[in-house]
């Protein structure tokens, strides 16, 4: 169990693979913690240093009072990477994690050499949509919204498996403060202009059954970056690293190898 004491909330993080290898950083989605990557980690090439963390308000990291801003979420991971001495990484972000990736790449070109934008957008939903979700969670707790959220996260066939319940339980045990804080950060984020200015190797990954960030949104976002690539994982929803870990790991492996990172 590792905790980074930074100027800000304490962040829980984990390192897998080769601690001396080239760094690859993972940022996960709203309502999940760093276990999101558990299934892909052991099947990725073990020469890289894989760093994953719980963003503020999630997992075992501190949970300050909200609302949070995207700037604060970006600054947290920037401080974590400075704390760890990371100078040059490939950044993999899923959903809100993909927004953090875009914000970090725009702010610290020195730190992000390439990025993977998975199941995300430069802008996700509308302010009104997020305000409604915050109000509903505030009134009834996350459990009241769990069914529609999980329908967007997973394909029907995955929802019929026992593993589904682990993700259900992760979601409903998420603190309301952290969840609503991050909803506010997403509501206030429109990265279309900054992401259009990015010039770095970039890959978009979408799930054909993703009801939160559908393939068209991921494609529109990744197309903002000249020379980027796009992969569609069929039969997976918003969290393809959970539903299709082998396919997801292969796509990441091919991207990492193509970067000559390390
Ligand atoms: O919970 C959802 O609807 C999916 C989602 C949107 C942003 C994020 O991080 O997760």
UniProtKB/TrEMBL annotation:
GO terms for biological process: beta-ketoadipate pathway. It comes from the Bacteria. Residues 24-250 form the AB hydrolase-1 domain. GO terms for molecular function: 3-oxoadipate enol-lactonase activity. Gene3D superfamilies: alpha/beta hydrolase. PANTHER family: MONOACYLGLYCEROL LIPASE. This is 3-oxoadipate enol-lactonase.
């Amino acid at each position: 169990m590792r905790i980074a004491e930074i100027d800000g909330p304490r962040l829980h993080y984990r390192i897998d693979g080769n601690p001396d290898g080239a760094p690859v950083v993972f940022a996960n989605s709203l309502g999940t913690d760093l276990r999101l990557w558990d299934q892909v980690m052991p099947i990725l090439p073990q020469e890289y240093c894989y760093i994953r963390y719980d963003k503020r308000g999630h997992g075992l990291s501190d949970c300050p009072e909200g609302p949070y801003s995207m700037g604060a979420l970006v600054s947290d991971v920037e401080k974590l990477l400075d704390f760890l001495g990371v100078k040059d990484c490939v950044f993999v972000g899923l959903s809100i994690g993909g927004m953090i990736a875009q914000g970090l790449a725009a702010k610290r070109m020195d730190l992000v050499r390439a990025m993977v934008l998975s199941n995300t957008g430069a802008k996700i939903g509308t302010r009104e949509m997020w305000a409604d979700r915050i109000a509903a969670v505030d009134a009834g707790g996350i459990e009241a919204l769990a069914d529609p959220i999980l329908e967007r996260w997973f394909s029907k066939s995955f929802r019929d498996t026992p593993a589904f319940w682990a993700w259900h339980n992760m979601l409903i045990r998420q603190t309301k403060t952290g969840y609503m804080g991050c909803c506010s950060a997403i509501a206030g984020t429109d990265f279309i202009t900054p992401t259009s200015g990015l010039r770095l190797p970039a890959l978009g990954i979408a799930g054909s059954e993703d009801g939160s960030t559908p393939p068209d949104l991921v494609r529109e976002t990744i197309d903002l970056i000249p020379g980027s690539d796009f992969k569609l994982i069929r039969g997976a929803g918003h969290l393809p690293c959970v539903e299709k870990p082998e396919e997801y790991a292969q796509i990441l492996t091919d991207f990492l190898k193509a970067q000559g990172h390390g």
